[in-house]
Specification:
By secondary structure, the protein is an alpha/beta fold. It is built from eight helices and four strands; from the N terminus they run αααββααααβαβ. The chain has a four-stranded mixed sheet, covered by helices on one side. It starts with a helix and ends with a strand.
Length: 178
Amino acid sequence: MEKYEVLIKILDELRSEAPDKYKSYHRDDEDSLKSIRARCYIHLFLKVNFGILDFVEREKYITDGPYDGGIDAYFIDIDEKKIYYIQSKFRNTKENFIEKDILYKELLAMDIARIIRDGEKADEKGAKYNGKILNMQKAISNLNESPMYKTEVIVLANASNKECKNIKRAIGDFDYSI
């Protein structure tokens, strides 16, 4: 079995962890599967990197959806005093997963500075950010010693050397990792 097939199998296992009340994870049509696997890719990252084993707990950190300001998930590490913002681009074919880079314009869609530094509740066009983004803002503002927290953007995607040079500028000059 090839690596990409193994990844798909893992993502489908994560999908099966979704309780029945998360109906969107239990759809089987091809278009739904693509978006479900993309979301499970974020679940996998949260599970492996931050040790969040419970599906429902991980789901709380996923903000992906319409009007998410380009932030697909976040995580607050209280021990390390660090807030992670995650932008994920899951590719639905083996070839795209390996070869397709995230584009600068996709990174520009991340409104991290507007959402975090400025506390904005809507994008530049006036569209309100989704409820999960607003809840994230509230959780961060409720942190004790919130100014002491460092910020890191995690880009779950391939990035060419050319795009890497522009990432920091595109995401508001925050530290980042790919």
